[in-house]
Amino acid sequence: MTRPPRLSLVLVPALLLACAFGPAPQEQTGVLAPEGANEARLNRLQPPAHVMDVIGAAPGMSVAEIGAGRGRYVVRLAVRVGDGGKVYAEDIDAAALDHLKTRCARWGLAHVTAVLGTATDPKLPPAALDLIFVISAYHHFGDPVLLMRNARASLKPTGRLAIAEWLGSSGTPPDRLEAQMKAAGYRLERIDTSLEGNNLYIYLFRPDESR
């Protein structure tokens, strides 16, 4: 009797990781396809489906991404929340937002609204959001405390702030980020470390009603 080959102990964890965080086949084409090699690289380090599960993005939600850039995550958030939801794509770079608007129009994502904010005010609608999301952008903020303090007014009372930020020299140290968001009026709910191997933490905050 011929026995099937055994997987090595080295190969098994790699296969499990690929199953857990690797891109699904449908993400190679269409709306979810990365625009270029850099987007593909970032998506491998920040697996979108996994990240959106961690932050609690769900159908019907009203979500804003601060620092949305050219729309790498916005298109995915739009697909996740569906036509019954709403996505606000905020950035201070008008050219990037123009590209984002073209990208969303190409795929019929009419429930995405681009918002040109400022360095200290994202100009999001008041008390309208279930979730504010920041990914790969926090360390670029000149005054994160004031920016996120102004963003807080856009959250519903049950809303959440989620920040996916690099570790190490390329990102913001966890203790500094936590202190800054406390000063901005948020309380830390938890830190997801499932992508620590990719040098990424995901911080989940709620508005601090005592402040």
Write the layout of secondary structure elements.
Blueprint (H helix, E strand, L loop, with lengths): L10 H11 L15 H9 L2 H8 L6 E5 L7 H8 L4 E6 L2 H13 L5 E5 L12 E7 L8 H9 L2 E12 L7 H10 L2 E7 L7 E8 L4
Parallel strand pairs: 1-2, 1-4, 2-3, 4-5
Antiparallel strand pairs: 5-7, 6-7
Q: How would you describe the overall organization of this protein?
A:
The chain is α/β, with parallel strands linked by helices. The chain has one domain: Vaccinia Virus protein VP39 (Rossmann fold). It has 7 helices and 7 strands, in the order αααβαβαββαβαββ. Strands 3-2-1-4-5-7-6 form a 7-stranded mixed sheet, sandwiched between helices. Strand 2, helix 5 and strand 3 form a beta-alpha-beta unit. The longest helix has 13 residues. The radius of gyration is 18 Å and the shape is globular.
Structure, briefly:
The chain has 211 residues and is α/β, with parallel strands linked by helices. It is 32% helix and 24% strand. Helix 4 (74-81) links the parallel strand 1 (62-66) and strand 2.
Give a quick set of tags describing it:
7 strands; 211 residues; disordered N terminus; alpha/beta; 24% strand; 7 helices; Rossmann fold; seven-stranded mixed beta sheet
Apparent shape: globular
Report the C-alpha radius of gyration, rounded. 18 Å
**Fraction of residues in helix:** 25-40%
CATH architecture: 3-Layer(aba) Sandwich
Specify the CATH homologous superfamily: Vaccinia Virus protein VP39
Category from helices, strands and their pairing: alpha/beta
CATH topology: Rossmann fold
- Overall number of strands: 7
Which CATH class? Alpha Beta
Mean residue pLDDT: 88
Strands of the widest sheet, in order across it, are 3-2-1-4-5-7-6
Q: Classify the beta-strand content into a percent band.
A: 15-25%
**What is the CA–CA distance across the termini?**
71 Å
Count of helix runs: 7
Contiguous low-pLDDT stretches (5 residues minimum) are 1-20
